[in-house]
Amino acid sequence: MTSSEIREEILDILENIAPDEDLSDLTDDVAFVDQLELDSMDFLDIVMELRKRHRVQIPEEDYTELASMASTVAYLTPLMKDMQKA
Amino acid sequence: MPKDFLKGVQDEYDVIVIGSGLAGMTSANILGRAGYSVLLLEQHYKLGGMATWFKRPGGHIFDVSLHGFPHGMIKSCRRYWSPEIAESIVPLKRIRFDNPMFSLTTTYNRDDFTRLLTDQFNVEPASVKSFFDAARGMNFYDDQAMTTGELFEKFFPGRHDVVRLLMEPIVYANGSTLEDPAITYGIVFSNFMSKGVYTFEGGTDRLIQMMEAELKSNHVDVRIKCDVEKVNLRQGRVASVTVNGRTIKTRAVVSNANLRATIFRLLGEAQLDPQFVDQAREVRLNNSSTQVYMALKPGETVEESTGDLLFSSTAADFRTDLLLSRDVTSRTYSFYYPRTRPEGRERTLLVSSTNAHYRDWSELSDDDYEASKQDLIETTLDAVEKYLPNIRERLAHVEASTPRTFRHYTQHVAGASFGTKFEGLAVSRGLPDQVKGMYHAGSVGIIMSGWLGAINYGVIVANDVDAMLMAAATSGKTSAPS
Predict the structure, then answer these.
(1) Distance between CA atoms of B227 and B243, rounded to whole angstroms?
(2) Fewest Cβ atoms nearer than 10 Å: which of A74, B71, B130, B482?
């Protein structure tokens, strides 16, 4: 998957996790928590969903990489580059 | 011949969950839903653990631990259980305090507390705001050096009345004290303050019934009256459990038993690193409780202005150690109006709870124990009289539970009704590093306590189990879930 496909995938996951949030004007390099009402369980859900959909394993010490859209995509790109978009 | 509660059980499961408290049930549900074969074993004859209820003749149903939880419960139930369960969560609007320092009723959220603190307690608005912001900014990985008492002293120096307002409900919610780390208070308090207090419409019995149906629809094999004796290891990893005289193979165990029982009874220290055993031995258990359950006669009603939750005390000052004393001066009342069970019979019930030490009850002779129980009932009825006049004549049923009762039904060490102190979390999280495939989910360290904390911790542990099983499958050692 390309970086932009990964970004789309994260958006799709976020839409399921936070159905009441407007994601259309999300700023990629600002932390999610400063724009959306996300708590630690929401981040855990992102981790679980990525594992379910793509078998991507994110160890607990790397959870901080998921702080913003930009850092999430940067972190996932090398892990998911060989995967096909579903 | 005794009934075989394991009739038709498989020889092997991907995961065996020991204990059907809210954490255990939630782990089982998530892993079942993910496609793993899951066996859930409960030693009692009903599911729910401390999330329990009991029925008495005359249509009275008592909830043991349904006292109120934060708004986050809606999201967790919707996501990890079902939309139907989430839709039954409704707000409790009247949280009342009555003590020698103040009497008030509040919706128990940030706006109303800000109003109370500035108007009635005359605290500077800036101090109130910075206190709320500080509490809300706390995370469980933050520095633990500051105690809750020091936190209050920083923002509200010398204000015992303010401390009482801010602390008393949390002491009842999770057994924490002024000496515990401030973060354990701040996280739980902020969870409540975000949107107030909620309850489950239909009562604990309806919730657990709905959860059981959900578990079964996710193909979880649910068994009651199955008391696991031992978790068996092979080459340092989980291999099977021994239950009701049978051995069942598994790749992972999630224990929702008390943390100390998990380590010292189910595993046994011989199987563990001595340093870890020492660490586990130092984990302090939280206190236990006494409760008095009162059912009003059919037709007897109570004005709802009496409150949903009432924190009452006759003690002039506020000290958390006094809350644990057998010389009870403080009680929390949960009122259950007919709307608690809209589809049930019209009943009004009241449960009085006090925190208590196991040791104050465990050593009593049978006669002294019965006498103490009766004394607990009589002194409670005397105290209730202030809020419900002529209570004795209006009662259809009254009985009491003690730390010994909790011990009997849950098998929790020392009848602990709020799990362990904060250090329990590190031991619980560290268990899989000691024994491959062995996990613990249950009330540890206060923030993982209460109904919402237990459910969320069940999710966190299910995530770990899923990661381990999937990694094992990827490395080709075993099969992936279907």
Answers:
(1) 6
(2) B482
B463 interface with A at CB cutoff 8 Å: yes
Chain A: closest CA distance from residue B117 (Å): 26
Beta strands in B256-360 (DSSP E): 288-296, 309-313, 330-336, 349-356
A61 to chain B, closest Cα gap in Å: 12
Closest CA to B237 of B380, B384, B434, B419: B434
Smallest CA-to-CA distance from B68 within B150, B142, B170, B181 is with B170
- Per-residue DSSP letters for B445-463? TTTT-HHHHHHHHHHHHHH
> Are A48 and B463 a contacting pair at CB < 8 A?
yes
Q: Which domains does chain B have, with CATH numbers?
A: 12-45+224-284+418-474 (3.50.50.60), 53-91+198-205+287-410 (3.30.519), 109-195 (no CATH)
State whether B474 and A51 contact (CB < 8 Å).
no
Residues paired with B116 in a beta bridge: none
Q: What is the pLDDT of residues B4-33, one digit of tens each?
A: 999 999 999 999 999 999 999 999 999 999
Convert the pLDDT of each residue in A8-32 to its tens digit: 999 999 999 988 889 999 999 999 9
Question: Which of A39, A47, A51 lies at the smallest CB-CB distance from B470?
Answer: A51
Distances (CA, A) of B63 to B97, B179, B194, B212, B479: 21, 30, 25, 18, 43
Give B281's pLDDT tier (boundaries 50, 70, 90): very high
The chain B residue lying nearest A60, using CA atoms, is: B464
Chains A and B form CB pairs within 8 A to the count of 23
Contact status, residue B65 vs residue B451, Cβ threshold 8 Å: yes
Determine, for residues A41 and B75 on separate chains, whether the beta-carbon distance falls below 8 Å: yes
A57–B contact, CB cutoff 8 A: yes
CB contact under 8 Å between A48 and B460, yes or no, is no
Establish if B137 touches chain A: CB-CB under 8 angstroms.
no
Residue B426, amino acid: A
